[in-house]
Every structure is written in structure tokens, then in C-alpha cells.
Sequence to fold (270 residues):
Amino acid sequence: MNQRSLFVLVKYGKLDRLISLLETGKLYLSSVETLRASGDKKQDNHQIDHLEGATRYFSKGPVDLTLTPTVGNGIPIKTKALNLTYAVKYDLVPGNICSFYSVTDEDFNSGKFRPIDRKMVEFGSHAIIITNVGEFLQRIEKALPAPNWSGLKYGHVEYFDESDFVGDLDLFKKRSAYSYQQEFRVLIESNQLTPAMLDLGSLHDIAVVVSSDATLKLKLKYDSSLNGVRLDFNSKNVEAGNGGFKKKFLLYRLIMKFRDWILIVMSRKK
Fold:
């Protein structure tokens, strides 16, 4: 993988789930099987990739083919195939993945930030922005593993040209059709086929929750003296995080407390 400086991580989703992540630090990791839709190519979309977990990919074209009949006069037949493509896949791929959009030094040209791709808002109405990536990754490393986990990895996804590529694949390589996602993923290696959870503790001190549209207007300035960026966005777009609570978030907390109170009352009546 290419070495690059990682500045900011962004995860898109529904507001209630992102607020819960901010509050509790419980990081949800989807099963690889869910992300590959059991290898069904027809299910491919911005989230599903049937080639997740594939071990080898071959795509070449156009290709000259010579077919030699085994019956008749046996004269070779020459033809041209537009493209030959196949992939080596397993029936089941265990493990768990959590994905983020990553902002790195490669997103700056002469100090000017290249905006996040508009297609990212398809992943959800809101986003959580991890402003202190180093601390976030440390908390991931310190999270208590489950007994059936064999390893923890994280890093950038590398993209390849699906129309002309021959080589090995792993869970950190994807087709270039997904490159706009600039994915940074956390991978739990295990024999698990169901979702997993990492408990990181509250993320209030290192993250903010904003609307998805707000991420398209982020102002990031590269500071070479820090080898990092200065993050600037309109505070009115902040839902929660870094102590900046909005009324909507306070209302959410009141609703959650009221729900918990109802559940306690109901349990006592049983």
C-alpha cells in the first residue's frame, strides 16, 4: 500500500446511529458476507460489492482466441473476445469491516483541498467526522477482542482497473468503480459471519456529527508545519460533538431517556 498522511475520517449514516456512536463509542462492523451479498453480482451498488473477499482477479481484453475443433477437418478458428473476466471467490467469507471516507495529503493540491465526492451523501443523511485520527486508532487497538477474533487490521483500500488487471486480491483491494469512496477500513479477522462491535468509549472529544451536505462544504487547510490540516465548518451544521450540542441532539437525548424510563416501568409491572 502507498504510504500517505491520514488527516480526517468520515463515516456516513443515520443521525440516531451516529449520535449513539458518538455517545457510547460502540463501533459497528458489518460482516463481510453482508457486504458481498453472498457473492451475488446482481446486488452490487455503492455499498455492496460481490467481489469482497475474492482472492484473485483476471480481466483482459480484447483477446485473440484460437479454437481448434476436435471433429471435422480440425481447422483452427480465430476469433476476438471483447473482454475476458473471472474472479476466484470463496462460498463464504468470514470477518467484519467498518468503512470510512479518508482525507489524506493526496487530497490537497498546492494546499487547496479537493472536496468530498457528492455521491458519498448516498450513504446517509449525516456523518461523523473523526478529527483526531491518531487517538481514534489507538482506541481501536486497545479495544477488548472477542475470543473468536484472530486479528485486527486497518488501512486504506487500494483500487485497481477492473478492465485490465491480473493479480491477487484481499480485503484491502477493490475495483476502481469504488475509488470515489476513498475508503479506509477497519478489519476484524475471525471465523465470524455475523456483525461485530468494538467498544471505544465516548468519542465526544475527538469527533463531531454533522449533516451529510455539510461534509461537501468542509474547509480544510493543509498546515505543513503540523503535517496536518485545520478543519473549518459552519457551527450551525454541527449536531453534536466537541461539546457543541444542538437542540435536536438534546431532544434526542430526552427521547432516549424517556424511552428507558418507560422500559423500566414496564419491566417492574411484569
Q: What stands out?
A: Residues 243-256 have pLDDT under 50 and may be disordered.
